[in-house]
Amino acid sequence: MSNTNDNRYVEIFNLTKAYPNPYADDVVVVDGFDLIMRKGEVVSVIGHSGCGKSTVLTMVAGLNETSGGSIAVAGREISGPGPDRAVVFQSPCLLPWLTSLENVLLGVDQVYPHGTKAERRQICEHYLAAVGLADSMNKYPREMSGGMQQRVGIARAIALKPRMLLLDEPFGRLDSLTRMDLQDVIIDILNRERITTMIITHDVDEAIYMSDRVCMMTSGPAAKVGQLLDLPFERPRVRSEVLEHPMYYDLRGSLVSFLEQQDHSGDDSSNDDGTMHVFQAMTTTTHELPAREIARENKETPLAAAV
Ligand SMILES: Nc1ncnc2c1ncn2[C@@H]1O[C@H](COP(=O)(O)OP(=O)(O)OP(=O)(O)O)[C@@H](O)[C@H]1O
Fold first, then answer.
1. Mutate-to-test residue for ligand 1 from 16, 19, 168, 307, highest number of ligand atoms within 8 A of CB
2. Does the keyword Cytoplasm apply (predicted)?
3. N or C: which end of the chain has fewer CB within 10 A?
């Protein structure tokens, strides 16, 4: 019998991170971050620059030690990095002396040591084709554009058949057309493979298009989950249907409104009647998490649709 519960596939409880400060007390960047993800669910994490999004993602990846709290994936508490959690960063960091196929093979060789060489190669070819690189398997990174290199990075991550995919602003360095192409590449793969995925993004529209829920982080220091927003769009997801959905602009407004509140110093995100502004334009389900006064000396970014 499996010891995992598909409704609680990823369990992040009371996650905390304090970075050392050589001149004063440690800086508590994340404090009390709680999130439960269902198996196959795609959650975007959005928040102002510097609030701690990447800190959360790298802790889930096991690349950044936690200061407190716990993270469990598929019923097992994580204690370091592992191939069960594949990460795609803004820059794919390919090995320049290897072709795209060889770059993907590096990880696949580790994960499928008992497969034959031909089987492992077939897995790499399958995922490189899935990201649109069927004709570029023997190219070196220097022969590929930034978008193509990022496709290799995505293929490399997904070929590991991870339990969880962690995407840290994976399109941050790409032009808007390439960005849209790659959003669709990932959406297609997620439609087929149903990998539980966390995406860090600054882009409200990307968060809405890509995910099943949006996790909105409060501004740091001591950032945590401020709101969770359920999205009503079906999968497989079609961009035009999402954009034309009658709820689209209300949902977008809710996200922007939350971020705007976080941008206002000393605002505790509540109306006079204690309700959250973010709920006002909404008819879909949201889950309110306990509010806490957050000191925000560290705000940086003016609000825009992309924060
Ligand atoms: N290794 C580190 N040591 C000390 N402070 C750090 C370290 N890494 C990040 N920080 C600080 O922690 C805070 C959160 O950083 P983080 O990169 O997680 O934020 P973010 O929300 O992902 O930012 P952005 O959206 O700009 O990428 C920032 O103030 C940053 O300066």
1. 19
2. no
3. N
What is the C-alpha to C-alpha distance for residues 234 and 212, in angstroms, rounded to an integer?
9
The reported pLDDT for the residue numbered 174 is 87
Distance 301 CA to ligand 1 centre (A): 14
Longest dimension (CA), the chain: 65
In the reported structure, the alpha carbon of residue 136 is separated from the centroid of ligand 1 by a whole-number distance in angstroms of 35
Range list of β-strands (E), 66-210: 68-73, 76-77, 85-88, 164-168, 196-200
| Residue 142 per-residue DSSP state | G
Amino acid at residue number 294: I
Here the tokens at position 18 are 């304090």
Nearest CA to ligand 1 atom 23: 50
Give the containing element (helix H, strand E) for 190: helix 176-193
Phi, psi values for residue 225, rounded to 5°: -75, 125
Q: Which ligand 1 atom is at minimum distance from the Cα of 200?
A: 22
| 100-109, 165-174, 258-267: least confident range | 258-267
The domain 1-84+166-175+195-307: what is its CATH number? 3.40.50.300
Residue 265 is given by DSSP the state T
ipTM above 0.95, yes or no: yes
Which residue is closest in CA terms to ligand 1's atom 3? 19
Instruction: Write down the domain spans for the chain.
Output: 1-84+166-175+195-307, 91-161
Cis status of the peptide bond prior to 113, with omega within 30 of 0: no
Residues with CB under 6 A from ligand 1: 19, 29, 47, 49-55
Residue 55's alpha-carbon distances to 28, 99, 148, 174, in angstroms, are 11, 31, 27, 22
First to last CA, the chain: 44
CA distance 44 to 215: 6
Please tell me the distance between residue 178's alpha carbon and the centre of ligand 1 in angstroms. Answer: 27
- The confidence score (pLDDT) of residue 97 equals 97
